[in-house]
Amino acid sequence: MRTRDLLRLENTGHPGIIALFAKAHSADWDFERDVDWSVPIGPQERLIGDAWTAFGATETFSRFPERARAYATRRALGRMLNILQVGESVAQNVCATLVLALREEDYRNHAAAQAMDEARHHLAYRRFIEKMDEEVEDIDHGTEAMFDSVLAMSDPLDLIATEQFFLESLAMNIFEGIQKHAVHPLLRDILALITRDESRHMGFGILYVAEWMRRSGVDERIAFARRWLAQILGSLLDRPGPIMLARVVRRLREAGVEDVDSHAPAMLREQEEINAADLAAAASGERVPHLLRSARRAGLLEPEILEALRIADHPLVSGALRAGPEHAAA
Ligand SMILES: [Fe+2]
Ligand SMILES: [Fe+2]
Predict the structure, then answer these.
(1) Are 131 and 189 a contacting pair, CB within 8 Å?
(2) What does the pLDDT look like over 279-288, one tens digit per residue?
(3) Ligand with minimal distance to 191 CA
(4) CB 3.0-4.6 Å disulfide test: which of 33, 38, 216, 257 passes with 252?
């Protein structure tokens, strides 16, 4: 980009995106001042309830000793926080790329404000992990490959659809889950502050995609929806299974549960029942995941698209359409 390009920056005047930029200032918080970092984290202290973690809500899991359960959930939390802290750095890179690539002044401004949010999220997760004072489990190859593919992108639509629209909608359920089940006050407090920022980021993704859909022809809209609904439905149907169970079993064994292998089949069976109940709640419209709410709000669930993709009868799609207006409100 040259000076002449910057002299000609166009402001789209999108009221929603301009409001998000203003909100980034009025809802600002300071990483040092607004979080009480003096609250200690004990070495064996329980940080989050069992039900947060995969297999933690099963009947079999609840019968293991408290010390083993607290250890296993803390290990799962440490792994997740490690994914989140690096995910924040990825998001910061995405925003920096967007600032350089976007030609719309109001969109650039949002990306610049979001970059600063992501910087403090990264610092907050890192500081919390440091206070846990233990080696956290490494991130898995699949997550790393997914982040690498995002870091290699340069097209604004690809970047925003992947980061703000898809990943931040997906992450919103993770943030809400940690916040809901956190028992350590520091964990709950930082998640409350971060979730507030993340809902703006997700909002930008929805508004940007909605605007792109509005300006695109029907074939382009269908092609976009085909790609992203496949991704969204695929990720929602990917529920805790054997791979996740292997991690839980390993952690319980590390915590001294010697006969854990003999309990694994029961945990898997019970988790499958929980998975089915969660999907039923999404299909009934009672608990619609953010990914589907975002898809609906951005216009991916419009009748002509569902008809072209032949997914109008998909239970998760019907659930998203059945959900009340508070789920669909922009
Ligand atoms: Fe973030
Ligand atoms: Fe974010």
Answers:
(1) no
(2) 999 999 999 9
(3) 1
(4) 257
Q: Is the Cβ–Cβ distance between 81 and 218 less than 8 Å?
A: no
pTM of the model: 0.95
- Region of 310 please: left (phi>0), alpha (psi -120 to 50) or beta: left
Query: Using an 8 Å Cβ cutoff, are 240 and 54 in contact?
Result: yes
The SS3 of residue 221 is helix
Give backbone dihedrals phi and psi of 48, rounded to 5 degrees, phi first.
-150, 150
The DSSP annotation for 93-143 comes to HHHHHHHHH--BHHHHHHHHHHHHHHHHHHHHHHHHHHHHTSPPPPPPHHH
| Residue partners of 118: CB distance under 8 A and separation at least 6 | 88, 89, 91, 92, 95
Q: Which one of the ligands is nearest to 87 CA?
A: 1
In angstroms, what CA-CA distances link 108 with 7, 10, 111, 158, 201?
14, 10, 5, 15, 13
**Tokens coding 116:** 């600063």
Give the SS3 label for residue 39: coil
What ligand has the least distance to the C-alpha of 201? 2
* 156-177 pLDDT tens trace: 999 999 999 999 999 999 999 9
Q: What is the pLDDT at residue 328?
A: 45
Distance 84 CA to ligand 1 centre (A): 8
The angle subtended at Cα 56 by Cα 268 and Cα 182, nearest 5°, is 155
- Find the 133 Cα to ligand 2 centroid distance in Å: 26
Q: Ligand 2: distance of its center to the CA of 314 in Å?
A: 29
pLDDT in tens, 120-167: 999 999 999 999 999 999 999 999 999 999 999 999 999 999 999 999
Q: Are 104 and 11 in contact (CB under 8 A)?
A: yes
What distance in angstroms lies between residue 249's CA and the mean position of ligand 2's atoms?
A: 32
CA 180–ligand 1 middle distance (angstroms) = 18
The ligand whose atoms approach the alpha carbon of 199 most closely is 2
Q: At what angle do helices 66-101 and 242-254 cross, to 10 degrees?
A: 130
